[in-house]
Amino acid sequence: MTVILLRHGRSTSNTAQVLAGRSEGVDLDDKGREQAAELTGRLGELPLKALVTSPLLRCRRTVEPLAEALGMQPVVDERLSEVDYGQWTGRKIAELAKEPLWTVVQAHPSAAVFPDGEGLAQVQARAVAAVRDHDRRLADEHGGDALWLACTHGDVIKAVVADALGNHLDSFQRITADPASMSVIRYTQLRPFVLHVNHTGARLTAALTAAPSSDAASDKEPDKEMPPGDAVVGGSTD
């Protein structure tokens, strides 16, 4: 199963350098609306089977044009919502950078718990669980490999990608998730494969065809058959 983790388009809070968190009514700005309109073209003819989104307005607005073009109804999942930043919500980034907790968030995020909010470790646990649950559901519905998209938030995406890479949450600040970027993970029984991180190009097509069955692989390359989910020693053969 393969998930495209889409960060919402640029929002009015991004432009204002304010930590939006779960504030109500934070919408896309003009650039964000352009990014949402461009999403269908960026995904090309990829066979998406489902759209899942955070409940927050900026995510729902981002997937609206794509959902309309595909004739699909997005599934809303609270577990993909933005971090609950508690008392940090709605404050200027420049002000927050002076807080003692800011250093913890930067250097030791697994220990960061926002005042009257949640911890980043909790965020990672709920978001990874959501992605895994939708993967299992769609695998059952479609009989194997399927491609789906989840629209969520920057820190949420970074936490899920860190997990897929097998990295400790304390390294997640090394990962970038720009507005309207796409990060792609293929989950197998053995391990996840991270195919793209922070993709902002015109089209997302590389490495996103359905995984071949073992029979198909053996017919094509009988000397290279290997268990599903194994990595190619020496790198990809494509």
Concise summary:
This protein is an alpha/beta fold. It contains 8 helices and 6 strands. The two termini are about 20 Å apart.
Can you put this structure into words, describing what you see?
The protein is of the alpha/beta class and 238 residues long. It is built from 8 helices and 6 strands. It has one domain (2-199): 3-Layer(aba) Sandwich (Rossmann fold). The protein has helices at residues 12-16, 30-43, 57-70, 93-96, 100-107, 120-142, 154-165, 214-220, and strands at residues 2-7, 48-53, 75-76, 147-152, 182-187, 192-199. The chain has a 6-stranded mixed beta sheet with strand order 3-2-4-1-5-6. α2 packs parallel to α3 and α6 packs across α7. It is globular and about 50 Å long. Mean pLDDT is 88; it is low at 210-224.
What's the architecture in CATH terms?
3-Layer(aba) Sandwich
Q: What general form does the structure show?
A: globular
**Count of all domains:** 1
Question: Largest beta sheet: what is the strand line-up?
Answer: 3-2-4-1-5-6
Q: Determine the CATH superfamily.
A: Phosphoglycerate mutase-like
Largest sheet entry: 6 strands, mixed
Element-level helix/strand string:
EHHEHEHHHEHEEH
The averaged pLDDT comes out at: 88
